[in-house]
UniProtKB/TrEMBL annotation:
It is found in: Cytoplasm. The lineage of its organism: Eukaryota, Viridiplantae, Chlorophyta, core chlorophytes, Trebouxiophyceae. Residues 117-379 form the GS catalytic domain. This is glutamine synthetase. Its EC number is 6.3.1.2. It comes from Coccomyxa subellipsoidea (strain C-169).
Length: 379
């Protein structure tokens, strides 16, 4: 990367009334992040005031063969301060549609190919479900794990070729550990990429993302941050924006950010996306503990459906800090379970629960929608 001082010379140039907005949307896999930059003539007063835009769907949704129908509209849904250009510049989260409300097709009738599981369908479905349960005020918090990879070797940061499973590693500075030496451990050779994690933390705070904290994870080069608690649809939106910010910070440090569930096979820690969940009922002192037990039973009854929708079964081996994909278990203080309830919950008789099944590449719109459907709507 060039000397950052060179860039800051341009970033501090005046921009008059103009506002630079980065439109961010999910492409055709529902996981690929896309973005492009638009200059607005003035600061929008609300999200409704941010103009729609469009993009070439054949480049991010469809294969070449479907070029005829390739215009995709970008419909703004949420906005945040841009932590790269500073206020008043914006990050704009957009849904992708063929028409503004995705109900009708402009010219070609039924020939139009359906948008494949992109953001349009999944976010809209999630928003509809969240609107239905507003009275229960669902809150979520997602623990987003990720590996930082060296672009030259594609190995996690700090690794030199293959690394032994964490339990057998002894750090060169000779400290002794009761377990693997990386989780929440300071020191050179223990926390690789702390500056990436810290730059991301500050950038998310400045953007208005409800980031809750960061920690180094079970493997060298693996970190976690948490976003939340967020209400309803805001959980998915803020997680997607936090990932976008992390990828941009990766560019600045010349590292690759990977949310893959199991990027390194065998005994190395996979990458999780634990999703914490509560409702008005579970947060009510006294009866909240009973509500949580009832939710756990409902989640058990739909384990197969959740697993099919979540994906990431490669990681769910029933070992290496992950539950098994094939069986459902819930428990108090049980970090090997599918669903963990904190030790404080039975004591305080209220609180939240942690779904440990989602992987690092989780679609937050799918996971939060499924949790609400199973516990509140399908009883
Ligand atoms: P762990 O002990 O599993 O590592 P973390 O501290 O990393 O847990 O993450 C806990 C998550 O739970 C955070 O994202 C936080 O926002 C979320 N959380 C806290 N309280 C609630 C609540 N009442 N409802 C939903 N999520 C919550
Ligand atoms: Mn063009
Ligand atoms: Mn955590
Ligand atoms: Mn973790
Ligand atoms: Mn957790």
């Amino acid at each position: 990367m060039a000397d950052p001082n060179v860039l800051s010379q341009f970033l501090s140039l005046p921009q008059g009334e103009k506002v630079i907005a980065e439109y961010i949307w999910l492409g055709g896999t529902g996981k690929d992040l896309r973005s492009k930059t638009k200059v607005l003539d003035r600061k929008p007063s609300s999200i409704a005031d941010v103009p729609m835009w469009s993009c070439d769907g054949s480049s991010c949704f469809f294969k070449e063969a479907k070029m005829t129908y390739s215009e995709i509209l970008l419909v703004p849904k949420a906005m945040y301060t841009c932590p790269f250009l500073g206020s008043p510049n914006l990050l704009v989260l957009a849904e992708a549609y063929q028409t503004p409300n995705n109900t009708e097709t402009p010219t070609n009738g039924s020939d139009l190919p359906a948008l494949q599981p992109g953001m349009c369908l999944r976010r809209a479905a999630c928003a509809a479900v969240m609107a239905q349960v507003e009275e229960q005020d669902p809150w979520f918090g997602i623990e987003q794990e990720y590996y930082i990879l060296d672009p030259a070797t594609k190995w996690p940061l700090g690794w030199s070729g293959y690394f032994d499973p964490q339990n057998q590693i002894q750090l060169s500075f000779g400290l002794q550990f009761a377990t693997g030496p990386f989780f929440c451990t300071p020191g050179t050779g223990a926390f690789a990429g702390r500056e990436v994690a810290m730059a991301h933390l500050k950038a998310c705070v400045a953007a208005g993302i409800r980031i809750g904290g960061v920690n180094s994870e079970g493997m060298l080069g693996q970190n976690e941050y948490q976003v939340g608690p967020c209400r309803g649809i805001e959980m998915g939106d803020e997680l997607i924006i936090s990932r976008y910010i992390l990828m941009r910070i990766g560019e600045l440090f010349n590292v690759i950010i990977s949310f893959e569930p199991k990027p390194i096979p065998n005994t190395n820690a996979g990458t999780g996306g634990h999703t914490n969940y509560s409702t008005k009922a579970t947060r009510t002192k006294g009866s909240g503990w009973e509500a949580i037990q009832q939710y756990a039973k409902l989640l058990e009854s739909r384990h197969k459906e959740h697993m099919a929708a979540y994906g990431g079964a490669d990681r769910l081996l029933g070992a290496y800090y992950a539950p098994s994909a094939n069986e459902f278990r819930w428990g108090v203080g049980d970090r090997g379970a599918s669903v963990r309830v904190g030790n404080l919950v039975p004591l305080q008789k209220c609180g939240y629960m942690e779904d440990r099944r989602p992987s690092g590449d989780l679609d937050p719109y799918v996971v939060t929608r499924m949790l609400v459907e199973t516990t509140l709507l399908l009883q």
